[in-house]
Amino acid sequence: MKNSPMSILQNDIAIDLGTANTLVYVKGQGIVISEPSVVAIDRRDKKDIAIGRQARAMMGKTHGDIEVIRPMRDGVIDDDEIAELMIRRFIRRVQKNRLMRPRIIVCVPSGVTKSEKRVIRDSAEYAGAREVHLIAEPMAAALGVNLPVKEPVGSMIVDVGGGTTEIAIMSLGGIVTNHSIRIGGDEMDEAIAMYIRRNYNLLIGERMAEWIKCTVGSAMALPEEITLTAKGRDLVTGMPKAVEIGSEEIREALSEPVSQIVAAVREALEKSPPELSADIRDRGIILAGGGALLRRLDQRLRDETNLPANLAEDPATCVVRGTGKVLDDFELYKDLLLTNN
Hints:
Nucleotidyltransferase, domain 5
């Protein structure tokens, strides 16, 4: 579909407003922002000091006048004011023509409540949108990996994000079965931090826990196990401390959140209609979201479900790419958007 001169000037925007990262897609340009969902503010005047990567670099290193805030929790807005500020800053960064307010499509968890929808809509409107639409994350992820969601065939996607894991079976432009659990990358990081604290009396920060997960985390045994050095503060002496930790231990730390994700996938499969189950057996499960990059999570799902399970290409951007597809051809895909109810 060709864009009119007016639509090009409007710079319409798709936003994957994630717990861990926010991605912004601009119509006609593609993904233009991929930054942590973090804001640093001055406590004295409540003005923002930094957004995104710059703010994340300050985590755990600020003095009393600076507060670093993550305004998203479990896939939805936790701090309305800070979220609105973050959205506004990202919108301004990509807008070429500030006289024309953009249409914005925002991804939300499939289990979002009516009040959570309202908060997201209000934040985007106050940030400068002329109209706001919402789309369920699993539907957006399915579009992002080119699944035939409008056809009479079952497609299954597992989107592992920072705050939620979205599991959905889709057919004929709708979600037939969905399961949204508030388990994702953040819970994995917390599990690692708790394990190290309990077993080594070592207190580590969020960034260290995430680095450990990305470096040695896995859902199943690795062909070659890995070790690394975790650094933090000794809870007994209060002094800086470093310990060697192996991937086997981190896998043990991650066992509970990973098992919860696997159980949720099995539950969604058990609730699926028989005809769609047959389609899924043939077509398999697609893994999307940044959390899907956990080593051997795809193999764990294959073993637990006896179904094909494949990692999407560039899983961290599937959701925003799918939302951008709706933005690029709004009339074709508008029936996939969520209603106001």
